[in-house]
Amino acid sequence: MVDFSMVFPAGFLWGTATAAHQVEGGSPPNNWTRWEEAGRVFRQQRAGLACDWWGGRYAEDFERAAELHNNAHRFSVEWSRVEPEPGRYDDAALQHYADMVSALHARGLAPLITLHHFSNPLWIEDQGGWTNPATIGHFERFVQRVVEALGGGVSTWCTINEPMVYATQGYLFGYFPPGARSFGQTIRVAENLLRAHAAAYHAIKALQPDAQVGLAKHQIALKPGFPALVHRRALNIVDNFFNRAFVHALTTGTLRFPSRTVSVPEARDTLDWIGLNYYYRFRVTFNLLAPRQLFLRQARPRDGIPGPGDTGEIWPEGLFGEIKRLFEMTGKPLYITENGVPDIDDSIRPLALIRSLRSVWQAINHNYPVRGYFFWSLVDNFEWAEGYDPRFRFGLYGCDAETQQRVKRRSADLYGEIGAANALTAEMVRRYVPGQAEALFPGVKVKSSVELPQP
Ligand code: BGC
């Protein structure tokens, strides 16, 4: 038996992902700065300087990404900077983003730009945010401005990050701004986000016909509580609502929720690619008293690793199934637009990364067209409602928002070796997670005793 390598396709994109409000620092008034001021974040924290990317530290962090042999990076544009007041666009802010795009190109990193990642200008929020259909037109004009300003250097766009996370966290669980708890509003927001995606898709294509436009969809892996027969119905409800409905609408133009079916014909076939954001697996138990929690519990880890707080278990093998079904639903190429684990000590991240990439590689070898992998995240950053809670540090590099010091974690070395080789090898596995190699790759210990004939 020869030693094992999981080689990725030529041209595969290796990158990391970030979002504006989480890394830039000093955001102008938006829904999150207001949420922070209202004390709704872990220990009343504020994003503050974050990773100081607005102050220019993006350049040194892009340098780090390049040192890790990355060839791509995903970042988002902050709407409240580009359009601080309705119809007033800030050219200096657009120039800043154009500079970031150039800084990526200068280091051989292809940009993938997200146009909405959880944050809205306050003026949008004050007119009802995404419950108000007028937001769709405002978003479309903002997107046009950004594409006009950056389009020369960007060909891959992500319209909206995680529409169902945004809708449920902000309008059902009340955990994100504006903190509503209403099924009706949740559904209205999802519907408006779908229309906004469609409007953005068509607007980008009109300006840049060759652009590749997609959306990042957060998928959760689910397993039924025991006995499965009882709980599987609840699982199907959650699965349809959270994982399937929006994706289905992007291909068919019909958004189907249990209480409401809406036709959005302009959304039909509005994907050139689909992004998968994948983190956790949950157990679903039917509990009539907990529909607002979507019947979700952290799964009892067996093959997985317990996640912090109310999150699910970390179960990297779920990637395969989510890739498979996103492809089956859309027929489009995929990017893993986010995948990562919160782990300040970096004690589980190397293993989770290896298991995740094994799962992605297996999917590729089943011929699912995965074109790239964006690890969440490059540096520790402001984790939304969790703020700077030490249990929620996602970076390949640690980052202290106060001192701005970065610390390289071992996972960064591992990710760099993978990018350089365009492969995950058994030898890397032995070095980074000693003792796990045989369990992960049966047979790797047996070295070849037969010399292969030289060509
Ligand atoms: C979001 C990121 C977030 C990450 C880790 C994703 O749902 O897109 O902004 O930081 O999860 O929790």
What does this structure look like?
Helix content is 40%, strand content 18%. With 455 residues, it is of the alpha/beta class. The chain has a single domain (5-440), classed as Alpha-Beta Barrel (TIM Barrel), CATH 3.20.20.80. The chain has an 8-stranded parallel β-barrel, surrounded by 6 helices. A two-stranded antiparallel sheet has the order 1-16. Beta-D-glucopyranose binds next to loops.
Whole-number radius of gyration?
21 Å
Architecture (CATH level 2) name: Alpha-Beta Barrel
Number of helices: 15
Strand content: 15-25%
How many distinct beta strands? 16
Within the CATH hierarchy, at the fold level, what is the topology?
Answer: TIM Barrel
Summarize the structure.
The protein is 40% helix and 18% strand. The protein has 455 residues and is α/β, with parallel strands linked by helices. It has a single domain, classed as Glycosidases (TIM Barrel).
Question: Which tags fit this structure?
Answer:
binds beta-D-glucopyranose; 455 residues; eight-stranded parallel beta barrel; alpha/beta; 15 helices; 40% helix; TIM Barrel
Secondary structure elements and pairings:
Layout lengths: L4 E3 L5 E5 L2 H4 L7 H7 L15 H15 L4 E5 L2 H4 L8 H16 L3 E5 L7 H5 L7 H17 L5 E6 L1 H9 L11 H25 L4 E13 L3 H25 L1 E4 L2 E4 L9 E12 L11 E3 L14 E2 L3 H13 L3 E6 L9 H17 L4 E6 L21 E3 L6 E3 L1 H12 L1 E3 H7 L4 H4 L15
Parallel strand pairs: 2-3, 2-13, 3-4, 4-5, 5-6, 6-9, 9-12, 12-13
Antiparallel strand pairs: 1-16, 7-8, 9-10, 9-11, 14-15
Helix pairs in contact: 3-5, 7-9, 8-9, 11-12
The structure holds beta-D-glucopyranose.
The site of beta-D-glucopyranose has 11 residues, from loops.
